[in-house]
Write a structure and sequence with these properties.
Oligomer: heterodimer
Number of strands of chain A: 10
Number of domains of chain B: 2
Shape of chain A: globular
Order of helices and strands of chain A: EEEHEEHEHHHEHEHEEHHH
Radius of gyration of chain B: 22 Å
Order of helices and strands of chain B: HHHHHHEHHHHEHHHHHHHH
Number of helices of chain A: 10
CATH topology of chain A: Rossmann fold
Largest sheet of chain A: 6 strands, mixed
């Protein structure tokens, strides 16, 4: 069970309000789609929830426990893992070593030797076992995104934040990745997915939260939310709506 | 990286036990004392380079602090033993601990502030050595600008004559440093540091306690550097600020480690052996004035040609390395007369290095695989 709530999150970068009082919740077992135009604060929200950024104010509560000021390495231990929009593999390690790192830490840390063995199975899960001992420079973007997934899954998360896992992929790869997300979800992991491709999100998500300029402007059923006038305006601008 | 974490330390200890009796061999064979002092200096640089590599090579935080940590060790011995009359052996450890306190203090200041990374850390460690030098110069309780004579330090007889004792103390510290680095390299700490080096933010979000690991590594690094400095104080007869708190120690350990390779414990060991042997022979050949230029130029060439470091390259190309070394041995005989076994060692190392520099062919790529169809439950259960 995972019950994640966040209240009034504020994050500024200089004068920019990346998050301007964002509140919400992630329910157990759902696929929550985070959508919104560029710069609306979707990625910032993930960065704050995963502990990558510190919020200027606001609270993050997991299972009734305030985790706002926890360092990121404690947050993943509590079951919140994330991937990066642009894959960030450990560049001097092989694919296998990349996946073995999260296995050595967290709630049930393994020794480096045990971690290597366990990492092999996560590579198999995403179909990268043939690349286990290869340097990550031999992986293409699609494979690097799968490596990110394997690395996050190896931490045994209850909630997985996916930051634009589909961006930059060709249509066949997008379909394959959607299947992968479904498989991960089917195994009982709650998913929060940030995605640009609205059609993909509406088909995948069980609920959608729309952000615009650091504020939540809509939250609800995927089919309905995307038809709300304020959401259309946010995406297409005022004239398009009135036209 | 293979599954034998005990092998490295075991081999190191066996080699150490064998080397322990080397002074007896030198004595029995009537070889010059220089053979002991040369070996001691190699041990010294092995210790310093390994110690530097533990923190900087593994974590990627570039440190010029080696001179400061080493200097604290040297002066700890000078002040506490010569001026205060402390017993020798405990003071070695105190020298290491004092250096550790300094290292942890730097870490506490710099690592607390998330923005201060990379260059700032390097500059800060560089500044610390200069500040310490200045403080020692002003303060009469430390140095006061006079220097400290160390030739009168009473040494224990148990370890043999003075050169034999120096050799054995150097051996102990080098073995300690190498074993510590070996253990760290194959531990969670080591993998955590490697991940910090590659991408610290990602390491943290994947569960690596980055702050704690950097502090532990810096504490170990500075302890080993300080301990080695305290031992080295016995080897020099007169300590001065200018010779201790200068840029030579940090530069040498950086060159040695990068040349040998920073990812494997053997890198700094090999780098220290090669660099010290070469510069020693150039100095012997009466080329003191240009020795630094030649060594520097050689190092730049080698570092550019072998990015992964000498050790990993040699391991990948054992045949050409062995052939190169054999040619070096032969060249030593042909080019003789050999004044010293050290010269022969220099030829051998040079041959091996040049052999390893022969260009390497590309490895093949694997076939792409489709995602497997098992579920997460199967992965976890399996």
């Amino acid at each position: 069970m995972a019950d994640l709530r966040f209240e009034d999150l504020v994050k500024h970068f200089g004068g920019v309000h990346a998050l301007d009082g964002v509140s919400g919740h992630v329910d157990d077992g759902e696929i929550l789609g985070l959508v919104g135009p560029n710069g609306s604060g979707k990625s910032t929200l993930i960065n704050v929830l995963s502990g990558h950024y510190e919020a200027d104010s606001g609270r993050v509560v997991l299972d009734g426990e305030d985790i706002t000021d926890r360092p990121a390495h404690r947050i993943i231990e509590m079951g919140l893992a994330r991937t990066y929009q642009i894959p960030r593999p450990f560049s001097t390690m092989t694919a296998l070593e990349n996946v073995s790192v999260p296995l050595m830490f967290g709630a049930e840390p393994k020794s480096p030797g045990e971690a290597r063995e366990a990492a092999r199975e996560w590579l198999e899960f995403v179909g990268l076992e043939a690349y286990a001992d290869e340097p990550i420079t031999s992986l293409n973007l699609h494979q690097l995104k799968y490596l990110e997934l394997a690395r996050a899954l190896a931490a045994r998360p209850r909630i997985l934040f996916l930051d634009e896992v589909l961006s930059g992929l060709n249509p066949a790869e997008v379909n394959e990745s959607i299947e992968m997300v479904r498989r991960i979800h089917d195994s009982g992991i709650t998913i929060v997915i940030v995605e640009h491709l609205v059609r993909v999100v509406t088909s995948l998500a069980t609920r959608i939260m729309v952000l615009d300029r650091g504020k939540v402007i809509a939250d609800g059923d995927p089919g309905e939310v995307m038809r709300l006038p304020e959401v259309v305006t946010a995406y297409l601008g005022k004239r398009a709506q009135s036209a | 990286m293979r599954q034998r974490p005990w092998l490295g330390p075991a081999v190191t200890l066996v080699v150490a036990v064998a080397l322990w009796f080397y002074p007896n061999l030198v004595d029995a064979a009537g070889w010059p004392i220089f053979y002991l002092l040369f070996a001691y200096t190699v041990f010294f640089w092995v210790t310093q380079a390994s110690s530097w590599n533990l923190f900087t090579g593994f974590s990627g935080y570039f440190s010029f602090g080696q001179g400061a940590f080493y200097g604290v060790g040297v002066y700890a011995l000078g002040v506490l033993v010569v001026k205060r009359g402390w017993p020798l052996l405990p003071t070695f450890v105190v020298g290491g601990l004092l250096a550790s306190v300094l290292g942890l203090f730097i870490g506490l200041v710099v690592f607390r502030l998330r923005r201060l990374r990379g260059e700032i850390f390097a500059l800060m460690t560089l500044a610390v050595a200069f500040v310490l030098g200045a403080v020692a110069r002003i303060s009469p309780t430390i140095d006061g600008g006079q220097g400290i004579p160390l030739s009168s330090v009473p040494t224990p007889d148990a370890l043999g004559t003075h050169p034999q004792m120096i050799f054995r103390l150097g051996l102990i510290t080098a073995v300690l440093a190498v074993v510590v680095v070996q253990v760290v390299q194959n531990s969670r700490l080591g993998w955590g540091l490697f991940s910090i080096r590659d991408d610290e933010d990602v390491a943290e979000t994947l569960g690596v306690p980055t702050f704690r690991f950097k502090m532990i590594a810096l504490g170990l690094t500075s302890f080993l550097a300080g301990l080695s400095g305290a031992v080295h104080a016995l080897q020099v007869s007169y300590v001065t600020i200018e010779e201790v708190f200068n840029i030579r120690v940090p530069l040498m350990v950086i060159l040695m480690s990068i040349l040998g390779g920073t990812r494997h414990w053997m890198g700094p060991v090999l780098g220290a052996l090669v660099v010290h042997t070469m510069s020693d022979r150039l100095n012997r050949a009466g080329l003191e004035a240009v020795s630094d230029i030649i060594v520097g130029a050689l190092l730049i060439l080698m570092i550019v040609a072998i990015k992964e470091g000498l050790y990993l390259r040699m391991r990948e190309r054992p045949l050409v390395t062995a052939i190169g070394a054999a040619v070096g041995v032969a060249a030593g005989f042909v080019l003789g007369p050999l004044d010293s076994a050290v010269t022969h060692l220099a030829y051998t190392l040079l041959g091996a290095v040049l052999g390893a520099m022969v260009p390497v062919g590309r490895r093949r790529r694997p076939q792409s695989g489709a995602p497997a169809t098992q579920t997460i439950e199967e992965v976890v259960g399996g």
